[in-house]
């Protein structure tokens, strides 16, 4: 069974008329010659969906995805179960979207590795946004740094609910010692979209600092990521 046949038979995803193949080629040409900024979000989604649904008009599907999730970034970051709720979006198309997400995260991570994190702050923020901004549950991530402030490891320590993640300061410091890290950057996301830190966030950060400092481990910052932006504890003078 062909991939597009497996995803066919859905209202709004009709067999493409003959002229649509020309549309696909024109879209690819515009992407190649003018670059991605010349394409709207739904057109970029079309390019991704072409591979999984080669013989159908995917413009209605691309627009339906944007209506449901809001933006290109939110579409590719959406959980697979929620993507599967969209009529006409089958397994192969979902996989294509998640490949794009994985590639974006891998590129962002590559910009952070082997570079001093504190002097490549925009790359650190880009990476954190790519990996966490649109997650539907809170995640607590730690970037472990060596004495040159280069990234040793990047680990998700906890995954919680939509508004809470349990964090254990001694476990954070224990892991830093295991990796011989001399510094950490704490990162967590707010699925609500608002990155404003809560009082619990502030207290938890202070607890980690109190445990880490006597052992020579610096907490360089705590970043809260949301769809609406990010907040730095250091920028707010909370560290």
Describe this structure in words.
This protein has 239 residues and is α+β, with helices and mostly antiparallel strands. 47% of the residues lie in helices and 15% in strands. A five-stranded mixed β-sheet has the order 2-1-3-4-5, sandwiched between helices. Helix 3 packs across helix 7.
Helical percentage: 40-55%
List how many beta strands DSSP finds. Answer: 5
What is the global morphology?
Answer: elongated
Number of spatially distinct domains: 2
Query: In the CATH hierarchy, what is the class of the largest domain?
Result: Alpha Beta
Which ranges are low-confidence, i.e. pLDDT below 50, for 5 or more consecutive residues? Answer: 1-14
Query: If strands are numbered along the chain, what order do they take across the biggest sheet?
Result: 2-1-3-4-5
Spell out the CATH superfamily of the largest domain.
Cytidine Deaminase, domain 2
Structural class: alpha+beta
Terminal-residue CA separation: 58 Å
What is the chain-wise order of helices and strands? HHHHHHHHEEHEHEE
Question: How does the SSE layout of this entry go?
Answer:
Blueprint: H1 3-6, H2 18-34, H3 41-52, H4 59-69, H5 72-77, H6 80-83, H7 91-112, H8 121-132, E1 139-145, E2 151-159, H9 169-178, E3 183-189, H10 199-212, E4 218-226, E5 229-232
Parallel strand pairs: 3-4
Antiparallel strand pairs: 1-2, 1-3, 4-5
Helix pairs in contact: 3-4, 3-7, 7-8, 9-10
Brief overview, please?
With 239 residues, the chain is of the alpha+beta class. It has helices at residues 3-6, 18-34, 41-52, 59-69, 72-77, 80-83, 91-112, 121-132, 169-178, 199-212, and strands at residues 139-145, 151-159, 183-189, 218-226, 229-232.
């Amino acid at each position: 069974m062909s991939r597009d046949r497996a995803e066919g038979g859905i209202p709004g995803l009709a067999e493409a008329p003959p002229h649509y193949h020309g549309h696909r080629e024109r879209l690819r040409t515009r992407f190649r010659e003018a670059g991605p900024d010349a394409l709207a979000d739904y057109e970029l989604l079309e390019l991704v969906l072409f591979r999984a649904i080669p013989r159908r008009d995917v413009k209605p599907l691309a627009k339906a995805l944007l209506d449901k999730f809001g933006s290109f970034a939110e579409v590719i970051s959406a959980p697979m179960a929620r993507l599967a709720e969209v009529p006409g979006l089958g397994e192969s198309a979902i996989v294509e979207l998640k490949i794009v997400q994985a590639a974006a995260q891998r590129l962002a991570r590559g910009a952070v590795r082997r570079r001093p994190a504190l002097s490549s702050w925009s790359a650190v923020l880009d990476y954190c946004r790519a990996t966490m901004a649109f997650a539907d549950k809170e995640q607590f991530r730690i970037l472990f740094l060596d004495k040159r402030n280069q990234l040793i490891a990047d680990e998700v320590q906890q995954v919680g609910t939509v508004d809470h993640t349990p964090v254990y300061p001694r476990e954070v410091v224990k892991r830093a010692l295991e990796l011989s890290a001399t510094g950490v950057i704490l990162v967590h996301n707010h699925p609500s979209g608002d990155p404003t830190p809560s009082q619990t966030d502030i207290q938890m950060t202070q607890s980690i600092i109190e445990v880490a400092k006597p052992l020579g481990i610096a907490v360089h910052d705590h970043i809260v990521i949301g769809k609406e932006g990010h907040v730095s504890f250091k920028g707010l003078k909370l560290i």
